Amino acid sequence: MSTDPFRRVAGVAVAFLAVVPCAFAPSASAAPNSVSPAIQAPPADQFKLTKQQKDSLQAITSAAQKQMKAIQDNPSLSRHAKAEQIAKLVDNLEAQTKAIFDVRQRKLYEADRAKSSQGDELHLTTQQKVELSLIRQETERQTTAVFDDPKAGRAEKARRIEKILADSKRQQIAALSPAQVKLVEGNDARQQAQDPLHRTLDQRIQMRIIEREAMGKGEKIYFNKKLTEAQKKAQITALQKSAQTEQEAILTPQQRQTERTLMASQSRRAQ
User: Fold this and answer.
1) Rounded to whole angstroms, what are the CA distances from 53 to 48, 105, 189, 225?
2) Torsion angle of alpha carbons 136, 22, 14, 35, nearest 10°?
3) Confidence of residue 227 (pLDDT cuts 50, 70, 90)
4) How far apart are CA 107 and CA 172, in angstroms?
5) For the purposes of burial, counting CB atoms within 10 Å of the CB of 15, is it exposed (0-12), middle (13-18) or buried (19 or more)?
């Protein structure tokens, strides 16, 4: 368990590309999952905190949570201004936390911080982490609204989502240094190369739209009390097959052949 009370407010994880569907890598397959930043006090069992320390940590953590919510809910602040203020709040919380710890606890805390930062090749600042997290949340909110728009057709949804992702990419680039952008682009290229079908961004978006539509229909079937379990199973199976057929139609003949080859190989290994 992490002892870092600031990681979630600072963007949850430095490897933000792995969880941001709007990152440089052309992937719109990740389901939107809004994660609101939160400040959490470190677990007492790892630090052997006294009651007074627990109470003090709870007090400063609660105060920081309220301040952060006020910043996030302030419509007069730009995203950059919010990130700047939240970053200062995080740094201040860290200083207050260290002041509560004794020498042994501070050493444990610093060791955990150093361990958690391993593999952070981007070396993001607190403000960058916060700003990227805010970009992610706004992008997830926008894409979810498009996915769930009952009046928009698939072509319109794909067009709007592609624009949202392009805007998000520009915002992320603006939050990074040139050196960080270069590292991210290299990671994206490697990530894209790992897709055996080499799907385009447009293909990924269209396939995600079909998947979301099928999920919505599947939920209605699942919660339909008028259907028997057998009827539900039959309808969901038919729905899955229909969605798969529609997704395959988006692929090129070469991509479909590659997919069949991969599926056949997986089937042989499973036997």
Assistant:
1) 10, 11, 47, 52
2) 30
3) very high
4) 34
5) middle
Domain ranges of the chain: 16-191, 197-270
d(C-alpha 126, C-alpha 132), whole Å? 10
Confidence grade of residue 23 (pLDDT, cut at 50, 70, 90):
very low
CB under 8 Å to 185, separation ≥6 — which residues? Answer: 24
Q: Which helix (H) or strand (E) holds 166?
A: helix 154-175
Buried b / exposed e over 198-234, threshold 16 CB at 10 Å, is ebebebbbbbbbbbbbbeeebeebeeeeeeeeeeeee
**pTM for the whole structure:** 0.72
Nearest-10 crossing angle of helices 201-222, 126-147? 60
Cα 26 to Cα 81, 128, 268, distances in angstroms: 28, 21, 31
Q: Answer yes or no: are the C-beta atoms of 189 and 127 closer than 8 Å.
A: no
Residue 175: the pLDDT is 93
From the CB of residue 59, how many other CB atoms can be counted at a distance below 10 Å?
Answer: 13
> What is the reported pLDDT for 11?
33
List all residues 6 or more positions away from 37 whose beta carbon is below 8 Å from its beta carbon: 8, 9, 10, 11, 12, 68, 72, 86, 130, 133
Q: What is the pLDDT of residues 86-115, one digit of tens each?
A: 999 999 998 998 999 999 999 988 888 888
Q: What is the mean pLDDT of residues 143-155?
A: 94
